[in-house]
Write a structure and sequence with these properties.
Blueprint lengths: L6 E2 L3 E5 L5 H8 L15 H17 L8 E7 L4 E10 L7 E7 L8 H17 L3 E7 L3 H9 L3 E5 L13 E7 H7 L7
Antiparallel strand pairs: 1-2, 2-3, 3-4, 4-5, 6-8, 7-8
Helix pairs in contact: 1-2
Protein name: Ribosomal-protein-alanine N-acetyltransferase
InterPro entries: Acyl_CoA_acyltransferase, GNAT_dom, N-acetyltransferase
Enzyme class: transferase
């Protein structure tokens, strides 16, 4: 479910990080403006390697009832190249919820590939892992990401504000959720619990 996961879409292969992904992920996250709406600093190449090793260790601990971090590489089938990442993990504000996240190379944007990867990740979260709810934070200025999240069916609730100093970078993030029940209504599937 976590270690050997392989999600395939029409144009993408999505699988857990592997050490061979260091250069591909580093190339993506090093692009100019990639971190414009992400409240973190871009990692170094060594930082990417450490994140990948840490992610592989988290997959050993992940369980349906507790996802420590489920980082996935997005591989473009035609180019056979890592073009981004997506995944599921604990929300950054410590609310005890499971967050969906994604990022794709500038060169592969505006083709619907980020939506394809995020939709497949959302589906995997509900249909394979059995999550009851998935949430997302999106910067209020990031209109393409807001459109993507809304296309996935997540529902806007509020903009985050008045946070403790340690979470100030998240001020202005929009909070979206989708429950398994809401997902089932939009995606009827007799195999879902």
């Amino acid at each position: 479910m976590f270690i050997g996961a392989l999600i395939e879409t029409e144009r993408l292969l999505i699988r857990p990080y592997q050490l061979e992904d260091v250069d591909g992920i580093y190339e993506v996250v090093s692009e100019k403006y990639f971190f414009r709406y992400i409240p973190e600093e871009p990692p170094s190449r060594e930082g990417v390697r450490q994140i990948i090793e840490w992610s592989m260790a988290q997959n050993q601990k992940n369980k349906p009832e507790k996802i420590y971090k489920f980082n996935l590489a997005i591989i473009h089938k035609v180019d056979n190249k890592v073009i981004g990442y997506c995944g599921l993990g604990p929300d950054d504000l410590g609310m005890g919820e499971t967050e969906i996240y994604y990022g794709i190379s500038n060169r592969y944007r505006k083709r619907g590939l980020a939506l394809e990867a995020a939709r497949a990740t959302l589906q995997y979260g509900f249909e394979v892992i059995g999550l009851k709810k998935i949430m997302a934070f999106v910067d209020y200025r990031n209109h393409p990401s807001i459109k993507l999240i809304e296309n996935l069916g997540l529902i806007y609730h509020f903009r985050v504000g008045h946070l403790e100093v340690e979470y100030k970078d998240f001020d202005g993030q929009c909070y979206y959720t989708l429950t398994a029940e809401e997902y089932r209504k939009k995606n009827p599937n007799p195999n879902l619990l």
